[in-house]
Amino acid sequence: MNPRRQKRLVAVVAFVLLLGGAIGAMLYALQQNIDLFYTPSQLIEGMGDDKIKPEIGQRLRIGGMVVKGSVRRDPNSLKVSFDLVDTGPLVTVEYEGILPDLFREGQGIVAQGVLVDAKTILASEVLAKHDEEYMPPEVAEAVKGIKHVAPKNMQSYGQPKVSEPETITPEQGKPAGQQP
Predict the structure, then answer these.
(1) What is the pTM of this model?
(2) What is the end-to-end Cα distance of the chain in Å, rounded?
(3) Confidence check: pLDDT of 179 > 50
């Protein structure tokens, strides 16, 4: 082989190996920062066709609705625990810190943390979901036939309705005794 071609081949092979090593190192470093998203049902029953469950100690994100009456606060600290549900089993989330302003019972949230046991997450962050357009299918089905009717004496935004001036027809506006 020509020495010039041999140098080019060595340079190309070295470049491909370095590029592959750099990509492999980045993927390895990012591996610990990848959080998988689960719902309470997927966490308990498993995800996918193989019903793969996360391992204890694995970082993950979980999203669901806060169960009404399940929020328990420690009076001596900022520790709070609550239950999440989607359509199936309950999962308990434990968190220490200040909860978002939009957090409340019956509200959708996303918690990021570590799986402590099969049904408990130790959260490092809690995010309250806020989307006026979204409605879970079960809720949409439940409120399907309900219609909101505003009171007759109220305009929008709760302000009293201003009476409109009466309209006068051409016949009413003419002085008495005149014919059309």
Answers:
(1) 0.56
(2) 114
(3) yes
